[in-house]
Amino acid sequence: MNETIGAAGGSGGGLDPRGAAAIMTQACERARRELRVRRPVVFVTWGVVVLAGYGAMWLSVRSQHPVTGPAWETLLLAFLLILAAAGITANVVDQAAEGVGGRSQVQRGIFCLALVAGFAALEIVKQALWQAGLSHQLAALLGEAIPMLVAGLVLLASSAMTAPPDWPRLALGLWLLAVTAGGTWAGPVTGLAIAALAGGGGIAAMAVIEPRLRRS
Amino acid sequence: MTGAVLDPVIHVPARLQIMVTLAALPADDDLSFTRLQELIELTPGNLITHLRKLADTGYVTTQKNGSGVSARTSVALTHAGRAALERYTTVLRQLLDSASGS
């Protein structure tokens, strides 16, 4: 590389430093806008799902004595909400990740695998415990703790996959684990309310907190 | 600031856009030719010309996978390219600072 350009500009099609800076700023902003996953959308979506899903379950069990578990309609609602949120998330991620390959593509795959495998394994464990004579109350506790537990652990572990570590993801993972622990101790009925408000609220709040953490 | 020089390979609008766009990706990631073309808004021929220049200098690598309709050409910034862009940014900042100070 023999050719050099000094303060006066030299070659580069008459591109002066100020023009170069403007091009860099525009290209950088556009790349970030187009290639970065719109996380606030994902956080709000899952926050609403957790709030509505757990909230509906809480409404269906709050007058049960003894607790026999959420009504099947609320479980169906939760399932449909999860499906809708998964669809929205996939769409948001696909928009940003289209054409992007390499390491982060592998990381996304592992992240999804960890979530699916975690939910599947714990659901199988729950069924095995049910077969072994698990009570309704314990099954309800386990049922509400599993999703938050898996999501919290996967978020926590995956926060170390990026360089620098994904601090918002780590914070959310820890928060979900804390909500799971607190909710389980509160019992199957109050636990659902805690999961709805603290869990759903916490996830949705990340839509506001995460961009600030990123900027700092 | 008379000693500051901007890398002439990067100091071209289209190539500057390419470098900055690829640098927005995490290290070890690549971008398909098609997506890069969308983001830069260049014709395929122009993009190929600029990518060839950057590849000759070792700033980017291109890789073609598959064949026929499923063929995908990916473009990635090399470590040397990332370092060169950092140097370019530093020099540019110095030039702007000295211009605003004078």
Oligomer: heterodimer
Q: What separation lies between the terminal Cα atoms of chain B? A: 10 Å
The proportion of residues forming helix of chain B, as a percent range, comes to 40-55%
Shape of chain A: elongated
Largest interface: A-B, 35 and 40 residues
Residue share in β-strands of chain B: 15-25%
**What structural class results from the helix and strand content of chain B?**
alpha+beta
Biggest beta-sheet profile of chain A = none
Radius of gyration of chain B (Å): 15 Å
Summarize the amount of helix of chain A as a percent range. Answer: over 70%
Shape of chain B: elongated
The strand count of chain B comes to 3
In DSSP terms, counting alpha (H) and pi (I) runs of 4 or more, how many helices of chain A?
7
Radius of gyration of chain A: 23 Å
Total beta strands of chain A: 1
Q: Please write the string of helix (H) and strand (E) elements of chain A.
A: HHHEHHHH
Written description of the protein model:
- The complex is a heterodimer of chains A (216) and B (102).
- Chain A is mostly helical and 216 residues long.
- In chain A, 78% of the residues lie in helices and 1% in strands.
- Chain A is elongated and about 80 Å long.
- In chain A, 28% of the residues are buried.
- Chain B is an alpha+beta fold and 102 residues long.
- Chain B is built from 4 helices and 3 strands.
- Chain B has helices spanning 13-23, 33-40, 44-56, 79-101; strands at 29-32, 60-65, 72-77.
- A 3-stranded antiparallel β-sheet of chain B has the order 1-3-2.
- The longest helix of chain B is centred in the last third of the chain and has 23 residues, at 79-101.
- Chain B is elongated, with a radius of gyration of 15 Å.
- The chains are: A mainly alpha (216), B alpha+beta (102).
- The interface between A and B is large, with 35 and 40 residues.
- Strand 1 of chain A pairs antiparallel with strand 1 (29-32) of chain B.
